[in-house]
Amino acid sequence: MSKITDKTTMSRRTALELAGGGVIAALLTGTLAGAARADAALLSDAIKKAVGDSAMTEGRITLDLPEIAENGNTVPVSVAVDSPMTEADHVKAVHLFAEKNPAADVASVYFTPASGVAKASFRMRLAGTQNVVAVAEMSDGSLFTAKKLVKVTIGGCGG
């Protein structure tokens, strides 16, 4: 039975109930959920934008994240790259990506030989359980990568 009894008038409560039903229907059909989440293609595009199409090798990166993050709003992360940090062989940058965040590119940290070590620690937001990917750009143009799954129990950005 419809709550609208007259075609020209509608109570504010009825209008809000109908609007709320529309939002729930949109979420259930994936209309809003798809717009709020990045997918594998967006992650790939973000990595390509940061470092190009060159092949990546696993290794040399230590990615320290909790296996389970109790709160996605503040997830501690530490990334280090094994490098002598000389003029001839050093880390130029480390890029961090989160595959399901609304924006996949989380952070970029830049280094020079004067940095001494290629290491950084900070906190980031994660929109739910997902993989975090680190890509290190070396001075010779080579790329190294590491990936770690973080299970988030309370949503962070957008979740």
Blueprint of the fold:
Blueprint: H1 12-29, H2 31-36, H3 40-51, E1 56-58, E2 61-64, E3 68-69, E4 75-81, E5 91-98, E6 105-110, E7 118-124, E8 130-138, E9 143-152
Parallel strand pairs: 1-9, 3-9
Antiparallel strand pairs: 2-4, 4-7, 5-6, 5-8, 8-9
Describe it for me?
- The chain is an alpha+beta fold.
- It has 2 domains: 1-36, no CATH class; 38-152, Immunoglobulin-like (Sandwich).
- It has helices at 12-29, 31-36, 40-51, and strands at residues 56-58, 61-64, 68-69, 75-81, 91-98, 105-110, 118-124, 130-138, 143-152.
- Strands 1, 3, 5, 6, 8 and 9 form a 6-stranded mixed β-sheet that branches. Strands 2-4-7 form a 3-stranded antiparallel β-sheet, with no helix packed on it.
- Strand 8 and strand 9 (143-152) form a beta hairpin.
- The longest helix has 18 residues, at 12-29.
- The radius of gyration is 22 Å and the shape is elongated.
- The model is unreliable at 23-38 (pLDDT under 50).
Number of domains: 2
Oligomerization state of this entry? single chain
Could you say which overall geometry the principal axes of the C-alpha atoms support? elongated
**CATH class division of the largest domain:** Mainly Beta
Q: Helix count?
A: 3
Find the structural class using helix and strand composition.
alpha+beta
Strand content: 35-45%
Strands, total number: 9
The CATH topology assignment of the largest domain is Immunoglobulin-like
Q: Could you estimate the helical fraction of the residues in percent?
A: 10-25%
Rg estimate, integer Å: 22 Å
Flag low-confidence runs.
23-38
| Largest beta-sheet characterization | 6 strands, mixed
Kindly, what is the distance between the CA atoms of the first and last residues, rounded to a whole number of angstroms? 35 Å
Mean pLDDT over all positions: 84
Give the ordered list of helices and strands.
HHHEEEEEEEEE
